[in-house]
Amino acid sequence: MIELSNHHYKSKIEPSAGCAVLALQYNGVNIFRPCPSVEALQLDPREAACFPCVPYFGRLPSGFSQGGPPWNLTPTLPACDNENALHGEGWIMPWETLSITKDVLICSAAYIPRPGGYPFSFEATQSFSISEKSFSISLTILNTAREPIPVGLGLHPFFDRHEETRVKFTATELWIPPNEDNGRQTPIPDEWDFSYGRALPNETLDHSFIGTTSDVVISQRSGDITLSSNTNLLHVYAPENEPYFCLEPITHRPGQFGDDYLSPGQSKTLTMAITVG
Question: What pLDDT shows up at residue 270?
Answer without folding.
Answer: 98
